[in-house]
Fold this protein.
Amino acid sequence: MRILFQLTVLLLACAPADAQQSEVEETAVYEYDLTSLKAGSWVEFADPSAKDTVTSRLACTKVDDNVAWIEKTSGKAAEVLLLGVSKASNLVLFAYAGKPGEFGRKIQVAERHVVGSSTAVGQPAKGPKIPPDEARKLGASEQRKCTVASEPEVVSVGEQKLSCEKWTVEYKDSDKVKLVETFWINDRIPFRRRMDKSGNPMISSKEVTWEGKPTVNGGIAMRTTDIGDQKSTRIVKGFGDDAKPTLLLEGSDAQEKK
């Protein structure tokens, strides 16, 4: 399932840049801690193998009592997504899409479902709906173990040197390692991971067994993914607290909803 997911991401990245998005999943930003997010926070990621091209951007443009408004840009997509996300459930309530500087159009928010006992989360409008926290418990045949490094490591972001805690996640099936993801976490970077019911950061769509206790609560400075002889890297290109809205809305009603 994980390899299929990676292939899907690759195909989406190769999609035409001017393709219009018609819907977004309600769990699009489910893993982030919205309670700590402040208006103006932003972070950009780049792919070092592609001449540091920005591959994605997250920006919080507004925070209401119950809703956080997040702009999300991915890959080569020419459009920006504006998501109104419930701070209570972390689920997307409202979604708009459009080109920067233009008026956004409202798009559908798709529910996430789980079909029977399948490990596939993300089957829209099929089968019984299971809360995301419960869905994370499915797929027990695949073991996911995260090891916390005992010593900090430094990641360079421009001229900044960030001291990071290193988390390494191994995905095993029948005792065979099929995927390794490594995260470098820094407490200055926004869009930190939210905590699960065990008090550990959500770094996977499924539950993870931790070896060592994570001590840094922050955002991702760098992330590598190893699948066999294939390796990809995503590194922070920049972050800050001065983000402004780039997608316009007709009137203010949409952003004032609670």
The helical segments are 2-13, 132-135, 253-256. Residues 1-17, 114-126, 253-258 have pLDDT under 50 and may be disordered. Residues 79 and 99 are 5 Å apart (CA to CA).
